[in-house]
Amino acid sequence: MKFFSIPPTSALSLMDWNKNYFCLAHIALKNKEYKEFFKDRADHGFHVILDNGAAEGSLINSKDLIKLAKYIKPTELIAPDTLFDKTKTLSDLKKFKRSLPVCLNKTKLFAVPQGSTPDEWLTCYIEMLNDPAVDTIGLSKLSIPKAFCKITDSNSVSVNRRYVVKLLNELNLLTKPIHLLGMRSPSEFEAYKNMPNIRSSDSCYTVLSAVNCEDFDPNTISDTISSTPEEYFDLELTKFDSYQACVNIEKLNEAYDLNKTGGNNGKNR
Fold first, then answer.
1. pTM higher than 0.85 for the full model?
2. How many Cβ atoms from other residues are within 10 Å of residue 255's Cβ?
3. Structural domain includes residue 265
4. Which of 57, 87, 89, 262 has its CA 20 to 30 A from that of 111?
5. Residue among 223, 214, 219 nearest 245 (CA)
């Protein structure tokens, strides 16, 4: 599995540790240095995912998202999605596909299922799975707990997402590359170790644990990771914070054999 560490904007070079890059569009629109960092990595052929900002409550409009994608030319582009709303998400996906310019024909389309109930979420997932234009599917840290918490009797991201992955596997619906948006616990890495289509994940927690001076044990099965504060992306890391974040990333890589495959994973759209 590939792991995309997401550091504050002052410490973007931490992403170079794994050479996987997760760009938040709403920050790139406001921060030229941030935008140029990801363009440079994309120009050098590294795996860059351009996110739409929905999970941060900062979803940008399709026009601005496409303009940004044309400049950065990411490996993957996350289509607009509306939290918990299956109908609008699918409708917007159709419009977004039609508006993609030819110059992005090498950028793969990444879609995120939404819904407020298990049936809504599964219907949305299956439509995206059957859509030949969609290359990668992202499993949200927000919509999955919202849709499945009554079944699992838990609000935990990792508990609900493990349940959904198990369900999809039993239904033979893990047939496209899956990205886990916002990993919250090492228990997820353990659960998905032998599932090749669980392709990648992203998280702040290797860095956040360093900043909070938390003991980072990647073998601990726990859902007690600190929540990401609103000011996270504005944090200034000390040299020790940066060093400890690198140690945490490497511990995670070694514990779960992460980032062992190269290339962009999957075919171009």
1. yes
2. 15
3. no
4. 262
5. 214
Distance CA 109, CA 32 (A): 24
Cβ contacts of 92-97, under 8 Å, gap ≥ 24: 92/62, 93/128, 93/131, 93/134, 95/62, 96/62, 97/133
| Helical packing angle, 62-72 and 32-43, nearest 10° | 50
The string of pLDDT tens digits covering residues 61-110 is 999 999 999 999 999 999 999 999 999 999 999 999 999 999 999 999 99
Query: Is 54 part of any domain?
Result: yes
Question: Reading across the β-sheet that carries 20-24, which strands appear in turn?
Answer: 2-5, 198-203, 178-180, 134-139, 108-111, 76-78, 47-51, 20-24
Does 63 reside within a domain? Answer: yes
Task: Tell me if 75 sits within 8 A of 105, measured CB to CB.
Answer: no
Q: Which of 71, 118, 107, 111 lies closest to 91, judged by CA? A: 111
Q: Which domain does 71 fall in, by range? A: 2-256
CB-count burial class (<10 Å; 0-12, 13-18, 19+) for 167: middle
Give start and end residues of each alpha helix (H) in the chain.
25-28, 32-43, 62-72, 86-99, 118-129, 143-152, 157-170, 186-191, 205-211, 239-256
CATH code (residue 36): 3.20.20.105
Backbone angles phi and psi of 208, in degrees to 5? -60, -40
Torsion sign (Cα): 44, 45, 49, 52: positive
Residues 180-224 have pLDDT tens digits of 999 877 778 888 988 999 999 999 989 999 999 988 888 765 555
CA dihedral 233, 47, 129, 147 (to 10 degrees): -20
Tokens of 99: 């508006």
Does the residue 262 lie in any domain?
Answer: no
Q: Tokens at residue 25, please? A: 């569009």
